[in-house]
């Protein structure tokens, strides 16, 4: 006997009941009815100890159509009280208060896990049938188990009434980070704050961008303080972390995440050179001959022309319009510009210190 459940033989069909969360539109049941009539119920439906249906609404409808009086079931224990109450609802009026988005996500994750467990049993039963075995007494009819997207969609519909599994998956990711003891404390705390913001009505996508930026920032802090790392990596990581902290309150979440990714990439590819040497090292390969640089006057003219470029283009138009190759070229240009800025600032500061 498993800690999570056990097979129960000869459960009375009339003793199995379901709440309103299970779908009532079962589609075309005829193939399923025919399959069960021919091969038996190869995968038991899943119920709680008191007979409440968890998984297998279509199978239950099919065996009722066949007039079965008893059926083998998988009695599943260990589900949360909250999910049990949700599945037991018979009427909208039974809800005392609306679920928060993070509560919905937690229930969605639990229910999806139960559905995946049920689907795995059906796949195994189908495998036995394909090998021309007929385990009539235990096990779903010979129909395909739901695909991953379908399982997520069913779980989302049962919990929220909407096909909102993408948002629920994103919240689950934040919940997992908040509970993951291997994550840095500041990242876990940030994930918890983002979940609170989501419950307050703020953007789920924005929260996801911010937590990824926070993870990158924690990685930069680790690199910056790791004595085993070369000085160039430590210095570049520290500079990148400081810059990210400056931008946290003003940059758009998506931009912050991208800048964080660039900062980590730059830190990991830095050398032992000083910061004022890093940009030129990235802009030309070591084996290339030395180039003749343009004069300062040309640089001033260039940036005088570019000083208002962000006001002349609409990012909502540019973003979708660029091809993948054009977008990569643009990102590389931005990364090289930031590297050049860091090197120029370091040289400027060094000159000021010696003046």
UniProtKB/TrEMBL annotation:
Cited Gene3D superfamilies: 3.90.1530.30
SUPFAM superfamilies per UniProt: ParB/Sulfiredoxin
Region (Disordered): 123-150
Domain ParB-like N-terminal: 9-94
Source superkingdom: Bacteria
InterPro entries named among the record's database cross-references: Chromosome_partition/occlusion (IPR050336), ParB/Sulfiredoxin_sf (IPR036086), ParB_N (IPR003115)
PANTHER family: CHROMOSOME-PARTITIONING PROTEIN PARB-RELATED
Protein name, entry field: ParB N-terminal domain-containing protein
